[in-house]
Amino acid sequence: MRFRFGRFVLSPARRVLRRDGQDVAIIPRYFDLLVLLVEQRDRAVTRQEIFDRVWADVVVSDGALTQAIRTLRRLLGDDPREPRYIRTVSRHGYQFVFTPVETEPDNGAWVEAEEPDPDATVRIPAMASDPFARPLAILLQEGEYAGATEDERYDAAVALHELGTEEALRRLDAHAGNPAARALLREARWDVPGAGDVPLLGPPGRARAIIAVLLLRLRRASRLASARCVAAAAAAGLAGAVAGLLGALALHLVPDSPTGLEAAYALALVGAAAGAAGGAGIGAGLAGAEAVARSARGLALAAGGAIGGLVTAVVAHHTVRAVLTGVFGRDLDALPGAVEGLVIGAAVGAGYALATRRLPQGGMAAPRGAARWRVSSVTALTTAAAGVLLAVAGRHLVGSGLDLMAGAFAGSQVGLDPLARLLGEGSLRPLTRAIVSAFEGAMFGAGVAFGLTRRPRTGE
Q1: Do the beta carbons of residue 287 and residue 305 sit within 8 Å?
Q2: d(Cα 214, Cα 63) in Å, to the nearest integer?
Q3: Whole-angstrom Cα Rg for the chain
Q4: Do 273 and 342 lie in a common domain?
Q5: Is the pLDDT higher at 275 or at 425?
Q6: Residue 367 confidence (pLDDT)
Q7: pLDDT tier at 114 (50, 70, 90 boundaries)?
């Protein structure tokens, strides 16, 4: 079936919105939102339901939904103060309120209304003879528009793209020293089908525009990024605790092992602490990278994870060394450090990027069900491979780091000697350390990815 209301015909099957016999260019997700509102027009649709159905595979900020509604209203010629099409239901959601809406089979030729509804005329703001002048003044906050809000400037950027990206850029370049305006124009292109590119590299001053774009995206997604960072830390901490328990159990079951079951509690605590700390740092790097990167997303995620892992590992390394030196008088420089954090963080970022598809319209990946487990599995594999490479290179993760400390403290129950003897290895234990590092990396990578893809619930 298709829907006919006022001057518009909406065809879900053909994925077309027509006005007065002409197709209306509309972003796919915005089209899905309009279809949802029209189909459920007898009730107000909650914001949470909109996010779950329209943005089912991605998490976006509340601002993305607000922008989508503003765009739909502009396409329909609606006025939020006196809505004829889309009504905002305070603290709840939105409802399509236009009447009447006629439904008809979508299997015939298009038949447009003979007389357009004069009251449904698309409202186009009055402009001077130069249509670029007003939106450009709003974008630049010039003259009477000096107090324009960010949302008003964003809408002006959208209008400039609709008028012509190339001409808008030419005029914007004549106003030097406004990187924020270029950043908004860059962002707005994602909300205008067919909009041209807005390059940030080139003439002087563009570097500031790049920074402005990154800050704009991070500011809009800061709440989501922080929530995903916390979720990644919690899941990685849980994975670390499980890995510690399983490791203690494995050592306890090895014949002639001095490891008792009481070591399980200690190893679970160590694993949880290490996992939570690493998950927080790498999760923050990944969430931040995903918030700001739309192009080169994979590279940005790998870099974000690497930076987060590096910073966390350096802090943890010096903290543990300070405790061992100050309290026990032992200095173990070979403990996990910057290299391990950098490699593991990059591996988590690369695996996560590989398993989550590119999202050209922004937002953070939120796979569900089996897809979420697939993302965790792929990330686990890449992080396990990184753990093996580190072990082969003679580097240490938490498990082999504990083995190193066990050799420095008489009576320790957590050394890898019993497991190495079971595998027929000598004192160097390269195979044992590779297996332990692979297991540890897999558990950590899976935990971070699983927590990072958790879909937060939004308030209504």
Answers
A1: no
A2: 16
A3: 28
A4: yes
A5: 275
A6: 87
A7: very low
Query: Is there a single domain that holds both residue 302 and residue 444?
Result: yes
**Helices (H), ranges, 116-198:** 133-140, 150-173, 179-188
pLDDT digits (tens, 9 = 90+) for 168-184: 888 888 876 677 888 88
HSE toward the beta carbon, residue 174, CA cutoff 13 A:
7
Whether the Cβ atoms of residue 31 and residue 15 lie closer than 8 Å to each other? yes
Q: Are residues 308 and 414 in the same domain?
A: yes
Q: What is the pLDDT of residues 208-256, one digit of tens each?
A: 767 777 777 777 777 778 888 999 999 999 999 999 999 888 888 888 7
CA 65/CA 272 separation, integer angstroms: 37
Residue 276 and residue 425 in one domain: yes
Distance of CA 380 to CAs 54, 181, 399, 445, Å?
29, 41, 17, 5
**pLDDT, tens digit, for every residue of 300-343?**
999 999 999 999 999 998 898 888 888 777 777 778 889 999 99
Amino acid in position 373: W
Distances in Å between the Cα of 397 and the Cα atoms of 156, 260, 339, 365, 439 are: 52, 22, 10, 28, 11
Clarify whether residues 143 and 109 are in a common domain: no
Element holding 147 (H helix, E strand) = none
198 and 254 part of one domain: no
Largest CA distance in the chain: 93
Considering the domain architecture, whether residues 226 and 212 belong to the same structural domain is answered as no
Residue range of the domain that includes 211:
133-219
